[in-house]
Specification:
5 helices, 2 strands, two-stranded antiparallel sheet, about 150 residues, de novo design (two linked rop proteins), mainly alpha, elongated
Length: about 150
């Protein structure tokens, strides 16, 4: 397997994990029980997933995460099959880079507003960051950036 296919497979795999973890945040948001899917301390995920910062226009952020990771998967699959290769890599870099903006804001909210971190959310943030790094590596491979 060449490096283009390997990196795009990693992005696809991470995006599927991102979808799974985003679904977990939605379950946490709507759950009546505490910490339905929290991976660490009791109560931290509830504080984050049930806060006023966990929705945008009344939509839980987990739904937006699912959309983000589906779009990332689509772009990565185009890279994998070589369809519009250069354009797909460029769009993948822009898309994953733009995903870092809400991640930075949400980390700020967790650190300075809510004073606690959700392990499921942190996993999603890491997946978003890793996807950007992998997309950057793809651009270096085809020398879109110099």
């Amino acid at each position: 397997m060449n490096s283009r296919k390997f990196i795009s497979t990693l992005i696809l795999t991470l995006s599927v994990l991102g979808i799974i973890f985003s679904i977990m945040t939605i379950f946490n948001h709507y759950s009546v029980e505490d910490n339905s899917f929290c991976l660490t301390d009791k109560g931290t995920c509830d504080v984050v997933n049930k806060s006023v910062y966990s929705v945008l226009f009344g939509i839980p952020l987990g739904f937006l995460g699912i959309f983000y990771f589906i779009a990332t998967s689509y772009l990565a699959s185009n890279v994998y099959i070589g369809k519009y290769y250069r354009e797909s890599v460029r769009y993948l870099l822009i898309w994953t880079g733009s995903g870092l903006i809400p991640v930075a804001y949400l980390i700020y909210v967790e650190a300075f507003k809510l004073l606690t971190f959700c392990s499921v959310c942190t996993t999603i943030h890491l997946i978003t960051g890793f996807n950007f790094v992998l997309a950057f590596l793809l651009t270096r491979k085809i020398k879109l950036l110099k």
